[in-house]
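Internal QA ticket QA-208
Title: Verify multi-chain structure generation after dependency bump
Assignee: T.L.

Test input:
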Amino acid sequence: MKSYDALQLIIVFAAVLLSGLYMLGRIVPTWRSNFSKHLQQSRYPHWVNAIGVAIAGAAGCGSGCNSCDSCPSNSAKNKSS
Amino acid sequence: MNMSIPVQRFAERIALVGNPNCGKTALFNLLTGSRQKVANYAGVTVERKEGRCTLPSGRGLQILDLPGAYSLSATSLDEEITRDVCLGRLEGEAKPDLIVCVLDATNLRLHLRFALELRQLGLPMVVALNMMDAAARRGIRIDVAKLEQMLGVPIVETVAVRHGGAAKLLEMLDGPVPSMPPSLASDLDLHVMVRDLLRDAVVVPRRTAAIDDALDRWALHPIWGLVILAVVMFLMFQAVFSWATPLMDGIKIGVEALGGWVSAILPDGLLRSLLVEGVIAGAGSVLVFLPQILFLFLFILALEESGYLPRAAFLLDRLMVGAGLTGRSFIPLLSGFACAIPAIMATRTIQDERDRLATILVTPLITCSARLPVYALLIGAFIPRQTVLGLFNLQGLVLFALYFGGVVSALLVAWVMKLLRKERVEHALLLELPSYRVPHPRDVAIGLWERASIFIRRVGTIILSLTVLLWFLSSFPAPPAGYLQPAINYSFAGHIGHALQYVFAPVGFNWQICIALVPGLAAREVAVSALATVYALSAASDSAAAQLAPIISAQWSLPTALSLLAWYVFAPQCLSTLAVIRRETNSWKMLALAAVYLFALAYVAAFATYQIASHWL
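Actual output:
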């Protein structure tokens, strides 16, 4: 039963963490790219830089925009001069 | 001997340009396989859309779908985007290699003028003569070869709504870019040239279709037109409640069965609580409303396709102007029944900046589909399912009243803004009335599928995430041993709910509603899932998880339910809407104004409703 208790704690913790990160992405859509840039600074060890690269790769389409219309890359192009 | 061989150039980037409602987006969807929104009225596309298509030779082609414009002398924000892309003025956007000028073959009198203006740009150009099937049905005969010769650019016939209807266009795009059209005299009168083109190359038996004229005699009648509009809207809300019930019951049974099954196979503990009281009770309670949303959109999509909406805008112009808006505000406001975000973006078609601003500020008052689960839950719990006058569903009547209340409050707020405005210039409504069209079942089915996907995606992402977070906040910290009240009272969420109750007690909200309002700020329907989770965690048995409506009808008073309904008519419980107001107005001040006035209205309305209902009911 102890192993089941540990397993359910891990699952619940992961679900809450992922939900929190998802909502953070909704509220602050640029957090992931900013965080990834921060982790890729040369003052950090290589493995931290690698995590930064992985986070940047995971961003992109669907990473916190409300829709394609509100995607920063699209909306910038939709502003008239 | 030196001989210069002309180098054949192939287009890599083309732009679809033309008047509004000529079928550019339908053509874009056909070429790229996209599913951008199309409808039978002007002003559906207000942004540039980008897509790729593969030509018969296997070569890739980038395609831009631009908002419709009547002229390159732009008068609204959406027209400015089209002008800037065509002139290569848009930052980070190269001029297209080729312009595909899309013309509505049934309305060449209007559309040819813009084609001539585009031709004056001197860019390589192809004309897509769209809706050729509709033109043939109306007996319009076009001498394409003659028109091609007179315009000086290649012309292809297309039917954008038919599979394979753009085959000739694809063939042409696969070939080398046509040479620049010969320049036109700078002092050329475009209207005179359009008249010449029509005289020499086009035979139009009558300007408008006979069926359109016959229908418009009723639809645009100052009295019968309004009666028809009221009946259409009324039927829509009756159907939402009457037709959707069996499907909703089916989903409800499925959610309950899933909750029961998970409870049976998992031992009591955190994981079971998360799945049953959090995920299934929360997300499941929102998923139940999918059929009602789909029936609402069935009507909206059919109306959009039919060409009736611009007629409704025309009918309501006087009312709109009286309230300080313009007839042009009607379509954005009507889009607000689906979602406030595209509705606010659709205000780009409004030329006058003050009219546009007023429309943006009142759009959140229009009842969007995210409010439907909240309304449906409360109506289902508190309004008996009975027939009025032997014909009308009472629940449908209440829903209609809530939607009507949203529209009336939007007009009232606009009227107050008009009183506060110093400048009171009224702009005449100039609106293009498209031909009536029988909605194509395939297009409506695709539209419904899109709406269902969007709703299910929302349930699976934002609603699920917030439900999990709320479950966490409602479950931790765990109460100490010997704590006699429900554990949720001791949790973070319990403390937040009790603290907020000081503010909301005058409007009759209990602490459970106060908890639901917080995650409900992100999206309105989250309030339903939040209530389901909170009550599931407060309940003694697991079976309570999927029984939200009976629980609230037993625990809340009718004044509390009515007060919450009044709150939801006005409150801007949607962060995305506030964000898009900020983006479209480019002003934090406007965002603050919208948030403050909407929350203030919501509080005052809920307070008045609760106090009056407590005394009289």
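Spot checks passed. The radius of gyration of chain B is 28 Å.
Status: verified.
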